[in-house]
Amino acid sequence: MQKFIYKLYKFMYGRYGIDELYKAGLVLCIILSIINIFINTRILTLIELLLIVIIIYRTLSKNITKRRHENNIYLKQKRKIKNKIILIKRKWQDRNTHIYKKCPKCKKVLRLPLKKGKHTCKCPICNNKFEVKCRRGEKIEVEVIKRKK
Ligand SMILES: [Zn+2]
Q1: 148 C-alpha to center of ligand 1: Å?
Q2: Residues 14-41 pLDDT 10s
Q3: How many domains does the chain have?
Q4: In this structure, are 84 and 65 located in the same domain?
Q5: How far is the CA of 77 from the centre of ligand 1 (A)?
Q6: Which domain, by its residues, includes 106?
Q7: What's the CA gap between 141 and 136, in Å, rounded?
Q8: Which pLDDT does position 20 carry in this prediction?
């Protein structure tokens, strides 16, 4: 048994191995397999096989830099989607008390209190001042009145 483990260790030495993209690919493969139980199409089977080949290729690859780069791209996209979901959740939770608006200059999303009338806001990131109009506590208009560099 120890001989087998040693051989496996020797085989995997210098190879990329498992990462987050591997796990995501595996989960996707399992989901596709479950869907394929019900609809049973060759296209889905082919996609599954292709996915398995890609997963195995990535795990056994010796080009670690490229595999790490692919994983980083995946993690970046995952983070973006996760942040969007969090923002949607927060917008829904604060819908009666706050409004979320993008800064016209740096495009950072700001959480502003929902007050009727005109208000001047200052972006904490870029110090840009802009005016916010709030009518009937629902509709918000954003106008830039001053820009700083
Ligand atoms: Zn800003």
Answers
A1: 10
A2: 999 999 999 999 999 999 999 999 999 9
A3: 2
A4: yes
A5: 23
A6: 94-146
A7: 12
A8: 96
